[in-house]
Amino acid sequence: MTKKKYIISRTIALLTFALLFSSFKFSDWEYEKKSRVKIHTSISKIFNSGTYILNDLDDTFYSIKENDSIVGYLAVTKALSKFHSFDFYIIFDEDAKLLKVEILHYRENYGAEICNKNWLKQFIGIDTKSYSDLNRKIDGISGATLSVNSIKKEVFKTANKLKLNYDVYHKTDK
Amino acid sequence: MKKAILTGILFSMLAVVSAQNSAEKIIAGNQGLYIGGYGQIDFNLPTRDGAIYKNGTLDVHRIITFIGYNFNDKASFVSEIEYEHVTEVYIEQAFLDYKIKDNISVNAGLMLIPMGIQNLYHEPPTFNGVERTNVDKYIVPTTWREMGIGISGRSIEHSLNYQFMVVNGFNGYDDDGNFSGKNGLRSGRQKGAKSYITFPDFAARVSYYGQAGLNLGFSAYIGESESKAYNGLDLANETAVASADSTIIGVQMLGVDARYQKGALQLRGQYILANLSNTNQYNAFTAKDLGSKLTGYYAELGYNLLATYNTTNELIGFARYENYNTHAAAEGIEINEAYNRTDITIGLGYKVAKGAMFKADYQILSDASSEGKKGQFNLGVAVWF
Fold this sequence. Notes:
Chain A is α+β, with helices and mostly antiparallel strands and about 170 residues long. Chain A folds into two domains: about 1-25; about 30-170, no CATH class. Chain A is about 45% helix and about 20% strand. In chain A, strands 1-2-3-4-5 form a five-stranded antiparallel beta sheet, with helices on both faces. In chain A, a hairpin with a 2-residue loop joins strand 2 and strand 3 (about 70-80). The longest helix of chain A has 28 residues, at about 145-170. The radius of gyration of chain A is 19 Å and the shape is elongated. Residues about 20-25 of chain A have low confidence and may be disordered. Chain B has a 16-stranded antiparallel β-barrel. Chain B has a two-stranded parallel ribbon with strand order 9-12. Chain B is globular and about 75 Å long. Chain B has about 375 residues and is mostly beta strands. Chain B folds into two domains: about 1-30; about 30-385, Porin. At the A-B interface, helix 1 and helix 5 of A face helix 1, strand 3, strand 7 and strand 13 of B.
């Protein structure tokens, strides 16, 4: 076997292995053009960049990198409405401050009011230290109580998970 | 070399297969059974001229078990089994929902008629006061549910939800008239229990939530009541047909409602108008006193008194003014002023968790026919999970 052929075969094996490995980590939104476009539009608008790189950190988080340094985080997660789950994403800055929350998939009519962008704007910059504080600052929506509570809780949980881990993320993702 | 490539191909095939599976898994991730429920337990104490004059009543008013099953992302079944006053069992909802596209679903089965706020949102912690509003009892006969088929959906871009359905009408006559001046259409509900149909009725609702905190609803219901007098009717017999025609009424109901929340403040209001036709003949045939026009409205102000405290509990003080008139107009009969009723309700609700609430209120109940004011003191437990 020539050296060239050896390199080619190794590369193919490595690539397929990488593909196999990454396929386990692929989540819903990465398959869907609509979701990808939504997330891409938001990130490039918020960070004023078309050249950012998303790096998979764990089940929930991606780092948003530009010129090899982390500028923010993306979380794609889900929560329960009345009896379906809905998918949404959160964009944080590098200090885990909330920059954007948007719904990707809302599966039932009940509580669809939470998809309203004006209502979701209330999450921008919200303090995630105490849940009762966050709960108070985000106005409820009549007729969407369950979904409102569940997105509030999930945002709070996700933000705090990021705060717990982002030192680790900073170190491992250099 | 060959081996490496072969392994490569195998791996890539595996990769594709596993990718599809994990995607399918996630898409089908909503599969499963959901169990929930809500309940309302009441203590009512009637008063007259400020004094107790009757026994109080203690009632497990309603306990509902919600069972939903998501077959996949598109198909789900919703059911609610209701125990009312402990001894009565009903099915409150039972329909299959099939999502054709993101913004259109087909629903079929026993469904809630989309009219006003409380017929659709009747879980006790979602409204103030121990008892449901009387506009939503005497004008909109909550819980109003009938059999049919419909479409529903929403446009998130336009902040709209919509529902449209074709259903059976009220059972207006089965050897006896079911409508009355006092209770309006309430006793005509068929509730999916061997419901029958002569002509289909139509119901629709659009709600708009484009302004943060505001939810506006517009509802309409058009149709005719059903009558068993048409069963086995000889259509050649003009007298028989004419007398059967006297047992049905035309129903046109329109509703506008608004709910608003901002910080500690909650506002809600609703107006319902029902125009009924053929009531003259109906009353003459059945010896009933059904009005030809029913109206009802309420306005409510609520405020969370714990809004500035460091707690997720809520203590909501509220006041509501409500008028409902099942004789706003009548044909061929005298208007009974006793059916023009006004309730003023003042109370408190203490939410100890999002879905659990203690309630207390006092109602001043009056009608246009008498000077005397009755009252009712209510205590209640309201849960939803």
